[in-house]
Request: fold
Amino acid sequence: MVKKTIQIKWSAIASGVILIILGIWMDPESTRAYGDLPIPAYADLIWIFLGLIIIWYGVWGHRRQAQRQSDFICPRCEKVYLTATKISQCRNCNVPLEPLEGFYKRHPELKEE
Reply:
C-alpha cells in the first residue's frame, strides 16, 4: 500500500491566520496609514479575505502548481531535463523529449537490471 503524504505550507497558513486576526481586531476608525490618511471601513474585510486566500494557497494551491510541472527525459541519451528549462528537444541529440513519469514502463528495453 502506498501512503500519500500531504504537503502543507505552514508558513503560508500562519501568515493567513495572522492576517485574519489582524482583520478581526483592527479598528479602521482609530488606525491611520501614512500619517493622516484614513483607512476605509471595509479594510478589515480585505485583510480577512487576503488571509483566506493565503491559507487556501498553503493547503491546496501550491499542489496544483506542483502537479503541472513534470520533468522530461531524452529517449536516446536518457538525460533528464527539469521543467524550468522549457525546451522541447534534447540539446545533445535533437530528439523530442518525453515525460519522465512512466518513461521506463513505455520503454522497458532501456531499463537497467
